[in-house]
# Entry
Amino acid sequence: MRILCDLHMHSALSPCALEEMSPNNMVNMALLQELTAIAVTDHNSCRNAAAVMEAAMGTGLVVVPGMEVQTREEVHMVTLFQNLEDALAMQEEVYAALPDMKAPAKIRNKQLILDCEDEIIGYEDKLLGFSCSMTLEQVVERTAVHHGLAIPAHIDRKSCSILSNLGFIPENLYFPVLELSMYADRVRYEGKYPNQRLISASDAHELGFVGMAPSEIRVETVSAHGILKALSQGRV
# Structure
């Protein structure tokens, strides 16, 4: 079965996302775009994933919990998980690796923790927009330990991507899929990486971008587990 997914987007928890990226707004926009699945991938945190998952209950939309982890090398990695428990376990490790200082008020007040009714229930004190001390290899390894999948994010971007910051994809790391931004020249990257599967995603920080660069994935089951299995097998 082929489903349409947008597996990289940010809620209002990410300091660079707009407040309009609330659980219900994200879910409803995804449904308007006729998506089957989305992933909530806030910077270095998954504290709004539960609210988005709850907001999606009964709609048929699958919500994959995840994070966009910024490694020590300042490489952005989309990490996706089969369930919220695994995502939260990874979040605990990422939080321990973030700078040991509280976010100043002007940043903290942009890191909104929301419930499934879109109400603000708190603010995140961690500096989510900073690199953690985990290396690229460690992020890949620890994501796998928590039954997740790590994907190099927006490899075509000129900053915060594996190619811009390292200049290459390490041969000792296997990535079944690589992510392109909505602005990428897909043909160019297909030619450059003929043995890799490529997916695209919106990396939406505001509602108007949700579903702008969806990927078609061949799944056996329409679930977070089914999506991760399909990605790990390169069924895109």
